[in-house]
Amino acid sequence: MSNPEPLVRLRDLCKTFGAQRALDQVSLDIYPGEGVALLGAKGAGKSTLVRILSGTLVPDAGELWVDGQRQRFTSPLSARRVGIVAVHQCPDDAIAPGLSVAENLLLDELGQPDADFLLNRKSLLQRAEAIAAGLGLDLPLQHPVERLNPADRQLLVLARAFAQLPRLLILDEPTAALSEADAERLLGLIDSQRARGVAILYISQRLSDLQRVTNRAIVLQEGRLTSDLNTRHLPSAAYTLFGDRAEQPAVTPDKALPVPFLERFTRAGFIRNRAEGRAVQEQVAGLASSVAPVDVTDPAKTTPR
């Protein structure tokens, strides 16, 4: 039986911020249905690699292939078009206050030019109910999203990613703020996606999560891929994975990114007319740009992960 072709193939990716080399000739294959842990200390290059894969950063050199076709992503949308979707660590950065749970579940579709059908409340609810039911989620779809607890917000953001039918799903510390029971719910959803052939790139410092979700672990150190090992060897390789060198403290930005509050909606949080629909589309575009990491070329202003 022939070996399967990789879903994603990276060859000699390089990225430099000023004089600092964030990625140095990184090559990697990711296959359909496999779970890959992405590990390394702060400054190792994890975030830079994720940003390139998810379309928010362009490499200086190297190649990225999906299904045997060379790609050059210019935005998260271009990455999503070939099935690469990233879910970042903080769910509140990816939800739109002022909208219902249903509208947040369909937020990516709301931002599309042909989203008129979503202005019909019945159609919106039917679409959201179908997505939630397919994932086995019981969310209060008609409630304002602010009523959700942190665990349900995380599940909502993950469900929205699943609704895009990803082929590679990138997850950054998805269980970090969850209880054991809520983490188990989320991991169950991830298991179901892997069973359907979705590849997972997973960032976490919870070894139990890594051993549950992934079968391989790749380790970045100072921008270079230094290890590719079986996940069952993780406990004995903890030093290599996370490092113990002194690290520079994270840089705190002068001002937090603005949170796009969406106003002027009915009490139930649903869009009432086309003018408000266009306003939502504009806010969704602003939300996407605000949560996307900024490409900073001055190494003094950022520390790649």
Automatic annotation (TrEMBL):
PROSITE patterns: ABC_TRANSPORTER_2 (PS50893)
CDD domains registered for this protein in UniProt: ABC_Carb_Monos_I
A single MF term (Gene Ontology): ATP binding
Name of the featured protein: ATP-binding cassette domain-containing protein
InterPro entries: AAA+_ATPase (IPR003593), ABC_carbohydrate_import_ATPase (IPR050107), ABC_transporter-like_ATP-bd (IPR003439), P-loop_NTPase (IPR027417)
Ranges for domain ABC transporter: 8-247
Source domain of life: Bacteria
Pfam families documented for this protein: ABC_tran
Transmembrane helix as UniProt keyword: no
